[in-house]
Specification:
single chain, 486 residues, 87% helix, mainly alpha
Length: 486
């Protein structure tokens, strides 16, 4: 297959993996939310702040460096593997031995024993990061999809069974450990590469020169996406954090089923064509078109139907999450517009630019959250949305310096999806007023059906070329899937 067909197949499998993953995890999350208490979600969310942080440090951005490099040798892979595994094991030991200190720091005693067990996920991450990088570099998204689905389904089953048996917060711990363990086995099964006992200082230097900026960016992004959890949990308590986490969970779900499926493919594709700026520019605009076409209706639709969806999935006890969810949906809309710009910077060898913008964002968020957290979880969500809006031009400027963006051309990419999504919001809001006395399940069915039909009907009227382009992308992806099956 040529690169265009590989990209189409990559989008197909990335979408299949993300959507399958999100459906599976949403079902599991919905079940757990009816069995577990908000404070139990809050405890694991606090603990996950620290495990996710150390996981980024352990990986050192080496996986991204392996994907981005034009040429790699077997020694590159071997060196990256032993560094990742060694750091992962060392950090797991440090985390387990200091878990009680962290529990004191966040003023939540239950976090200590939870962290001790979750430290195991760092070892699994070290074992799997290079295997994942190899499959991504080779654009074997079908194998990555199989890994994602298998690990999350098995982990979900373990978590639900443990919760129903009364294990409480430990059901969430068991779920997370199982996901990492099964995912590691799946990656090693899918890849034929095996590490050899060798290490090269020159090769690790080459990888870290790129990876240092990547890991710096990821650390700052992690800080930006988790500092709200840390502040809410430490200042407002585990129960408030539980409500905030449920709202944030739906934001992450929509990001993963919209922008993430394009982003997973855009990085390896843009890395391959990084020396042809005209091709990069065309690929950029195509990514913007497709992303806005699927992200805009999702985020704007959630703003309208958040109360009904929350009550249907999680129950009435999670109503305090609804206003937070609506504000975060606006922040997600902004993210969908700017996220490709960061991928362009990384693919074209300018990860330091992303790092600088993310550092500015981190400073702004700390100040905004510190002021907002005193006013409650809705104010925290509003602070996130405002900072995202104010700093969005920095991401656009960074991409413009590399590939010269044209404002009118950019607006033409997002115009039809935006107009169609706004029309969809109006139609769904009108139907919502007419079916107020209908059962909850039927309300959601009517609202979602109205939204889908209205959006695609309007998009066909105002953005027919985009619809045809999406259909062509699907046509290119199907032969790849069929060939794989044979």
């Amino acid at each position: 297959m040529n690169l265009r067909q590989q990209a189409a197949a990559g989008v197909f499998w990335s979408a299949a993996g993300n959507w399958g993953y999100q459906i599976a995890t949403l079902v599991v999350f919905a079940v757990l939310s009816r069995v577990l208490r908000p404070e139990e979600f809050g405890v694991v969310a606090l603990a996950s702040v620290f495990t996710a942080l150390l996981k980024l440090i352990a990986e050192q951005g080496l996986a991204d460096a392996l994907v981005q490099r034009a040429e790699v040798t077997a020694e590159h892979f071997d060196t990256a593997f032993w560094v990742s595994l060694g750091l992962g094991t060392l950090l797991a030991a440090i985390l387990a031995s200091t878990s009680w200190l962290i529990a004191d720091f966040v003023n939540e005693p239950e976090v200590g024993p939870v962290l001790t067990w979750l430290s195991l996920t760092l070892v699994f991450s070290g074992l799997s990061s290079v295997q994942r990088a190899i499959l991504t570099r080779e654009m074997r998204f079908a194998s990555l999809t199989a890994r994602t689905l298998s690990s999350d389904v098995v982990g979900g089953v373990v978590g639900v069974v443990a919760a129903l048996l009364g294990f409480g917060v430990w059901s969430l711990v068991a779920q997370l450990i199982t996901i990492e363990a099964v995912g590691t086995v799946a990656l090693w099964t899918a890849s034929t590469w095996r590490p050899r006992l060798r290490f090269s200082r020159n090769h690790i230097g080459e990888l870290i020169s790129f990876g240092a900026n990547v890991v710096g960016f990821k650390l700052l992004r992690f800080f930006n996406t988790r500092i709200d959890n840390l502040m809410v949990g430490s200042i407002l308590g585990a129960t408030a954090l539980g409500f905030y986490v449920v709202a944030y969970r739906l934001l992450e779900l929509l990001i993963n089923v919209t922008t993430a499926i394009i982003g997973a493919v855009a990085f390896p594709v843009l890395s391959r064509i990084q020396h042809d700026r005209d091709k990069v520019q065309k690929a950029y605009y195509k990514s913007i078109r497709l992303t806005s076409a699927i992200a805009f209706p999702a985020f704007l639709g959630l703003i309208v139907v958040a109360p009904e969806v929350t009550r249907l999935l999680f129950g009435n006890q999670w109503d305090p999450s609804v206003p937070v969810m609506r504000v975060l949906a606006f922040a997600g809309l902004l993210y969908s517009i700017i996220f490709v710009n960061g991928i362009v910077m990384k693919s074209l060898g300018k990860p330091s630019w992303r790092l600088s913008i993310m550092a500015i964002t981190a400073v702004a968020l700390v100040g905004a959250f510190w002021v907002a957290v005193q006013q409650g979880i809705v104010a925290v969500a509003m602070a996130l949305a405002i900072v995202s809006f104010v700093l969005a031009p920095l991401w656009l400027y960074g991409a413009h310096k590399l590939i010269t963006l044209e404002p009118r051309r950019y607006i033409r990419q997002i115009g039809p999806p935006l107009v169609s999504s706004l029309g969809m919001m109006a139609a769904v809001s009108g139907v919502k007023l007419l079916i107020d006395d209908v059962g909850l399940v039927w309300q959601v069915v009517f609202l979602v059906t109205t939204g889908v039909l209205t959006y695609f009907g309007l998009l066909w009227l105002v953005g027919r070329p985009l619809v045809r382009e999406a259909l062509e992308l699907g046509r290119l992806a199907i032969p790849r899937r069929t060939a794989g099956a044979q």
